[in-house]
Amino acid sequence: MIINFKGAKTYIGTGGKSLDNTKKTFCFLHGAGQNHLSFIQQARFFAYKGYSVVVPDMPAHGFSDGNPCKSIKENAEWINDLLVELKLKNVIITGHSQGCLVALELNKIFKYPLEAIIFVAGSNEIPVNQFLLDLSKENPQKASQMMVIWGHGIDGDMSINKWPGHSHYGEGNNIMCMNQPTALNCDLNSCNDYSDGKDATKKIKVPTLAVLAKNDQMTPLKSGLKFVELMENCETHILDCGHFIPSERPLELNSIINSFLSKLE
Amino acid sequence: MSENYKFDTLSLHAGHIPDKETGSRAVPIYQTTSYVFNSTEEAASLYNMEVGGHLYTRISNPTVAALEQRLAALEGGASALACSSGMAAMHLVISAICSSGDHIVASSKMYGANINLLQHTMPRFGVNTDFVNPNDPEAIKKAIKPNTKLVFGEVIGNPGLDIMDVPETAKICNSENIPLVLDATFNTPYLMQPFKHGANIIVHSLTKWLGGHGIAIGGAIVNGGNFDWGDKDKFPTISGPHFALGGISFWEEFGPSALIAKIRAEGMYNFGPSLSPTNAFHLMQGIETLPLRMKKHIENTHSILDFLVNHEMVKWVKHPDLETHPDHEVAKRILPKGSGSIVAFGIKGGREAGKLFIESVQLASHLANVGDAKTLLIHPGSTTHSHLSSEAMKEGGLTDDMIRLSVGLEDINDIKKDFERGFKAVKKLNK
Question: I want to staple B320 with a disulfide (CB 3.0 to 4.6 A). Which of A71, A226, B315, B339 is the partner?
Fold first, then answer.
């Protein structure tokens, strides 16, 4: 659905079902340079399982207009205001990559306790090398292509996909091209500049799930494992794939999330 | 460690990794119609397009999917769909995008079946086409109307060998927000990858060079993922609500792969032009050697061009790699590795001489196909284009004396010897 939010056209994927704010709601937060299409195989899946689903395109991403947020905190404030606008109270946050950092900050400011936080390919810090930061400013398309290659495991290299006929690289590149050219650089700088992750992680009091990837070159497994150690009782799974877990291992991810949520019932 | 594998590697590997259970190095042939669901929930997930997977082989199949993913990788596309033939691919694309009242701009110099579909069949369903010279981007621009939904052409025209100026045409299509759909059968991704030149959708007859062995009919659509289908008034079939799946908008839900998702959900369901898993396997076997074969096809083509150009019995020779070809400059720019292995030539003595030549050669096969590993010959005026009037043939760049040659992979000296046999017979006739 498209709404006018903070004066800009804002797209919110709902997984093919109408948004019902009386239901428990999955809010998916996409990663740097991504948009709602990162969660193609999660949004419809959970919408058809009876949850309400919101997958917003952050400003300047995907189908949303506006200017890109310039920090993780600004991203979190924008999401917080959106959830308030949509009158959502019972929210399960699922962040991918940068979305995990946004989830950490959102947890601090959202006025209702989150039902749970699910971190996918996440960490409490995502430093970005200077080369990629510079390239994302000078040539965002090239930077996107490199991220798509680095971000996928062997399934990306070999065009292996659970969705028949789909290519991780071809699809990934074009998803990133849908964003405004400045969006990627803003996102990467936001990740690189974010330094409150450790404290924010320690403040989490709600159930958490972390799904990490063995061959993650964007948020390395080592960093992810240090991150989960900061939380009490974070259920942790490691999948044999690259950074783009939602598209590389969709069935496994959905199954892990389902199982995690069933334990919370 | 992720790698960006090169073309030759992808030709062999893309779309398949040996499974841990069997270790099968070759892509297995999943000769099955259907797939057991582990639960009702899983079945519902597949039917609702919540997740990827296989329901029924008319819609998708693991062997066919390996082929599709290999093609997507080789073309640099977002997604691909394989089907029963190149003509099925073309029809699937048109029917996914166009509805009654819509309009197409197409090249006037194309394969006869492509022209037939657009000129005679689609108008019965309310979709009309204006044909224009593919070498004239301005003419293409002028032909575009408010209800034009796609521009269609062949990168290398069949059989006239006209080269479409893809980058210039793509610029026009882009400025008009209309997808550029190209039949890239004659070039294959080895010679040219149309998405790098701005095209949006590719259709292939896999039967030809991609398969390469003349043993399996197949087609494919590769979706560049680089077209914005967001205008709901212009492209309601892709971005508007679908009649099933809860009114899904393919553009919103699948973005760059919207077209393929739409075709799988509607075209494959409702028309059913599926590719058999065994044929998908055969076609993949061909693709494994595509780079090697295309290299040899081009080497042999250049050698035979030299032979024909200098032969006393040959009236004219047409190939885009020859300086005399009107599209030579465009060919050099967009097909630097070579402009394919189809050669057209006219034999001295006209129609009768052409027929006699074809009947006199022994090694080259007289048949209605191109892109086989073996050398093939045909006389379009009496076979593939016999249904077209002389006027229509001329518009398509054809003449009565024209022989279409598909250069194979034999030792080129054997082919030359074989042609000498044919020329000798014609010489006797001319005397």
Answer: B339
How many residues are listed for chain A in this entry? 265
Using one digit for the tens of pLDDT, what is the confidence trace for A131-174? 999 999 999 999 999 999 999 999 999 999 999 999 999 999 99
Assess whether B72 and B152 both reside in one domain. Answer: yes
ipTM value of the model?
0.96
Handedness of CA B35, B267, B74, B239 (dihedral sign): negative
Question: Chain A contact for B414, CB < 8 A?
Answer: no
Put simply, the chain B residues between 11 and 30 with a CB less than 8 A from any chain A CB are: 13-17
The residue in chain B having the minimum alpha-carbon distance to the alpha carbon of residue A162 is B52
Of A37, A47, A254, the CB nearest to B255: A37
Q: Do B320 and B269 share a structural domain?
A: no
Q: What is the distance of C-alpha B109 from the center of its chain?
A: 14
- Note whether B245 contacts A: Cβ–Cβ < 8 A: yes
CATH number of the domain within which A124 lies: 3.40.50.1820
Q: Which residue of chain A comes nearest to B6, CA vs CA?
A: A157
Q: What is the pLDDT of residues A204-248, one digit of tens each?
A: 999 999 999 999 999 999 999 999 999 999 999 999 999 999 999
**Number of domains chain A is built from:** 1
Do the beta carbons of residue A21 and residue A89 sit within 8 Å? Answer: yes
Are B307 and B279 in the same domain? no
Chain A residue nearest residue B75, CA to CA: A170
- CATH number, domain of B22, equals 3.40.640.10
The angle subtended at Cα B151 by Cα B147 and Cα B155, nearest 5°, is 175
